[in-house]
């Protein structure tokens, strides 16, 4: 039987598009109000804020995150190749803007190690191209607390007019100019993606790609911090293979290690790791995480200051951190053109991490987010702060988990965190002048524990899915050994190639009948299946399209032990030789006797009379797929074998109809198309 298809009313896409444009272009006071409310979600939830119920959790989580943010901001400035003050600016503005525009209640947006690394790589490259020295050690002459003096310390003969910069601009001024231009462009990309609803781009970043990218980038971050751990002075490597080159330079200069920095790093790592492990073990008993990083920074700063470690042991320190805010400045347009390409992967990675964390929190706490609005929020968290000497931001997993575990209820906690950072910006920043860089490197390295632990999950990941494990390994290796941007691109392309390969060479099987039932399964995988006499049932577990057409045919011929084209040619030649034998010609062109040749060409005994194609796993057919099925129908019909299709979805049926598979009037559909394998088998038996 054939089900009667519903008649769908065709809707003109042009009319739908015009209707949407008219609706979008008409403005009413109500529509304007809804637009503002949607664009600033804080206007929706803040008036409904339950102060007595939420305020304690928000204040506690805000204070904890603020305390964590300060040392991390100072530490991650090493990754970005910028001064600590810019990291503090970034943390402050990102929290305020996401409070106004974000839809997630729990995500912590601010500086993130991977984003800082990507920014730092672009900054270092542009500084080298401009002729600056990448040696970032602080000179005593620049330690007077003045940002302007510090900016002019490292100067070069680079033509700043060509780059659109002030001729008095030094290394630090140029570095933050690059960072803000890069951040502005990343934010513009994210806003444009939100306007054109291009959030689907994140779907091409699978979990394996993201995990591999994060792990590979973590190895790069770890490598970049080793020189601070042991206090050696080596050039900051740039370009492809940075990880290998850096390690070579480290081992070449290991004899110059600063003993003071080595001892300090050892003590700090032991304290930090021990505190983290104890915190993880007893987290159910602790109301909030231990502020270990802050304690380590305070103690290390006091020891460095009163022990005069910089003057006596030449230990590298953070240097002057000015207080207050620098006047806002428009990012330089000429620099934007230089970093426009670099901003694209930065924008995508920033958005993907933010949305994935937002969705994770929303699922856990039973509320919804708007992915498109998240893209706008992250975009403006980059665009607006770029005018205030800040660099790119993203949601951070570690701080988000801390935020949720300390009772966070809404983004009011983000405002509290911003106030803590503001307090440091206005009053406390100069106190960190004597903080050793090796202490900051220790904080960064210990924060990578989660990403580096992914190596322990490789065996379990391999047991679950070998292809995903291969994607992880390739992405991680490319991100670490080549560069982070190239690694991300390699991971995306390789994961897509894996999908293509899996559809090019999918599983194929001959099916047998489960005894005393109307169900059929893979005869190779299951025991006690009975074959159907005179009927072969073939399953192809992928779409049938141009790339896997040949594999489909080869698999069909191999499993059924019959190539209809070869068999037809053999029969034709056999009949021709028989005609020659009747005429009395007993020799052939190759000199063999006609009887010997005829014996070699005896037609093969075919053990089936019907071929059933299980199309349940064929999601679509392209033109090549339809032509392939038509060829099969024709070739097997020449051998008196009927071809029956079973379990076709409506899309496949429509493709077959349009391709003329069922003839002009579709009159033969009832004898060629069946809604179950069992119906097709029963029909084949009846026809026999």
Describe this protein's structure:
- The protein is mainly α.
- It folds into 2 domains: 52-132 and 171-230 and 242-319 and 341-431 and 438-501, no CATH class; 508-579 and 598-687, Transcription Regulator spoIIAA (2-Layer Sandwich).
- Helix content is 60%, strand content 5%.
- It is built from 29 helices and 9 strands.
- Strands 3, 4, 5, 6, 7, 8 and 9 form a 7-stranded mixed beta sheet that branches. Strands 1-2 form a two-stranded antiparallel ribbon.
- β7, α26 (623-637) and β8 (642-646) form a beta-alpha-beta unit.
State the total count of DSSP E strands. 9
Fraction of helical residues: 55-70%
Mean pLDDT: 85
| Percent range for β-strand residues | 5-15%
Strand count, sense and barrel status of the largest sheet are:
7 strands, mixed
Regions with little confidence, pLDDT below 50 for 5+ residues: 137-167
Structural domains: how many: 2
Query: How far apart lie the N and C ends?
Result: 19 Å
Radius of gyration: 34 Å
Q: Give the helix/strand class.
A: mainly alpha
**Inertia-based shape:** elongated
Number of helices: 29
Organism: Indicator maculatus
Keywords: Cell membrane, Glycoprotein, Membrane, Phosphoprotein, Transmembrane, Transmembrane helix, Transport
Catalytic activity: oxalate(in) + sulfate(out) = oxalate(out) + sulfate(in); sulfate(out) + 2 chloride(in) = sulfate(in) + 2 chloride(out); bromide(in) + chloride(out) = bromide(out) + chloride(in); oxalate(out) + 2 chloride(in) = oxalate(in) + 2 chloride(out)
Family: Belongs to the SLC26A/SulP transporter (TC 2.A.53) family.
